[in-house]
Amino acid sequence: MNLDQLQTPALLLERPVLERNIAAMTGRAKRHGVALRPHMKTAKSAKVASLATAGNKGGICVSTVAEAEYFARHGFRDITYAFGIVPQKIERLAKLRADGVSVRLLVDDVANVKAVAERAKALGASFDVQIEVDSGQNRGGLKPDDPKLGEVGWALAGSGALRFLGVLTHGGHSYDCRGAADCRRVAEEERAAIVAAAERLSAAGLPCAEVSPGATPNAVHATRLDGVTEIRPGNYMFFDLHQTGIGSCTVDEIAVSVLTTVVGHNRAHNRIVIDAGGLALSKDIGANEPLPNTGYGWVMDLSGKTRIGDLRVGRVSQEHGQIESDSPLPFDRLPIGARVRVLPNHSCMTAAAYEHYNVLDGGADVIDQWDRINGW
Amino acid sequence: MNLDQLQTPALLLERPVLERNIAAMTGRAKRHGVALRPHMKTAKSAKVASLATAGNKGGICVSTVAEAEYFARHGFRDITYAFGIVPQKIERLAKLRADGVSVRLLVDDVANVKAVAERAKALGASFDVQIEVDSGQNRGGLKPDDPKLGEVGWALAGSGALRFLGVLTHGGHSYDCRGAADCRRVAEEERAAIVAAAERLSAAGLPCAEVSPGATPNAVHATRLDGVTEIRPGNYMFFDLHQTGIGSCTVDEIAVSVLTTVVGHNRAHNRIVIDAGGLALSKDIGANEPLPNTGYGWVMDLSGKTRIGDLRVGRVSQEHGQIESDSPLPFDRLPIGARVRVLPNHSCMTAAAYEHYNVLDGGADVIDQWDRINGW
């Protein structure tokens, strides 16, 4: 099968680009002397996880219980569920523990530690647990100087079913960065925060076996990772226009795109209608902050390598996308039935609409289809 | 099973609300003396389609080929694929025709009519086809006074494999309306445009058997539908906050919501973290235009009937939602592990993240699970 035969919209994955991105991040981790625990929330694919863990310790990170179950089914035995745990989610994870899978959990609250421990005990399961640290995103987790840090640590240590393993943070505010220097600053902010939290716990008698920051822009730009034991980036496997805007990748490092077909010409409004809309591309417009006028993605030729002028998907409804440009559109070059590719604003969101990747090897042939695990 | 036992995030569907919405729209169509061809792009569920077509002619409308195949498998025999057809999509639809399913297509371009007809002939299939009319959305279709209208009509009439059936429009600009009077104005604009197109074609020797407008706000508010043969609304089955903002429904007419669990407290920033983020809710923020400060959805109590103060999901990342308020949040009322429901901004986008509906009958018991057809 090749690109002409695929039903559209379809999700494409350039394997050589993916492999280069993975090799680059594995190399960064090795240079820093830290482990790489790839976050599989973006790719959600066992095939991609196999590539991403090659040459690393084999541990992965996930964002949903469904991912944990899927990757365990595919032979992954060391899984961090990097999302605040609640008692209601313990039962499914306890089944993985019963199968011998190491499942690491995340907490930031004493009362919740007690409730989770109680549920785990009732199910006869035990878990390694990290404390979530807020390194500046202001979402979840405790600030490094929060007195509750020690309280949660000691609650874990005394819980029986839960074992205190260390600290974890996601420096998500790196997504607001502009350019390499800004990324380096936030990367150091994230490192300093997680290391400070670890030192504080150590000083309180709770040494941290794992000190784990994680966010692609920080992982790409970090100049030092002293005190860190592992990093957990995920988006770097695919990258996207948002990461290009931040300065984490070049356009030709973006490994995924959406194949779409021209279904209409609207010459009066200088728009070309395609069959990739809000569902196929996602409605994430975050990339427009660092990369203005990106709309819902850039329009590339069928090779995926060259943008067609300044063309972008300017508007979307559920199934319709509308290509726009500041110049007259090339209607003759893009007749109804023609195909183009759209580079995604945010690959984590775009990929989630698809059941599988159509894998390319640099040409127009689809060499494989790799499944994904969506849902919860 | 009841709400306490569901894994979150989960999609809930209130069957009594759905049934009232369906009865109201069926009643409107009957009062206007037009057929109701429910658009299944929102619900994408055979069970919902069975309810929506009861008391109507049985015809439905879909937005993807995957929907057409799914509904055909579930016994629906009269399907309008209301999305610009291209030759590449004919083969799968021809298989439905071979099984005796009536499949209606949509076109707005002479060259494309020829290409589609050629492909259909090669496959031995024939289709009824409507011409897409642009009634003001400025997306796809021909304006009623475009001379190409007749050209496309005669191209269909002379194509052999395609039969000219009439006209179709989606007055999507109704989503920009504010209040009933504005909706009535745009509903009449849509009606006038599609009827003008039909009259123009009739005068040119191409009488229209089907004259079909379709958009929920217009269907709710239309005061007259003279000259129209059918309407094709879809969102009305579920409604959402955007429709509430427009004035198409009340909050208690919204039939779907997302069940989510509190996973963290961020007292320093007055935020409560939940396990419904951008994937579970969608990143559609269109509802904020007519309904300011809606964020990514309103936070309701577990009954789904009462909003908790002014709480809304103010921020989302992939799996995290952050509840915000202009007042101090009720942390004690919503401890970690507590559950709330989120009313969606745009139910078509939100529902698409889920494989099935958890059906409720007014209480906390999940009385059934209904599947959905996602993808393409």
Describe the structure.
- Chain A has 376 residues and is of the alpha/beta class.
- In chain A, 30% of the residues lie in helices and 23% in strands.
- Chain A contains eleven helices and 17 strands.
- A six-stranded antiparallel barrel of chain A has the order 10-11-14-13-12-15. In chain A, strands 3-4-5-6-7-8 form a six-stranded parallel beta sheet. Chain A has a two-stranded parallel ribbon with strand order 2-9.
- In chain A, helix 5 runs parallel beside helix 6 (148-157).
- The longest helix of chain A is centred in the middle third of the chain and has 24 residues, at 180-203.
- The mean pLDDT of chain A is 97.
- The interface between A and B is large, with 65 and 65 residues.
**Global outline of chain A:** elongated
- The chain-level mean pLDDT of chain A equals 97
Estimate what percentage of residues of chain A fall within beta strands: 15-25%
Unreliable stretches covering 5 or more consecutive residues of chain A: none
* CATH topology assignment of the largest domain in chain A: TIM Barrel
* CATH architecture descriptor name of the largest domain in chain A: Alpha-Beta Barrel
In short:
The structure is a homodimer of 376-residue chains. The first copy, chain A, is α/β, with parallel strands linked by helices and 376 residues long.
What keywords describe this structure?
homodimer; alpha/beta; 2 domains; 6-stranded parallel β-sheet; 11 helices; 23% strand
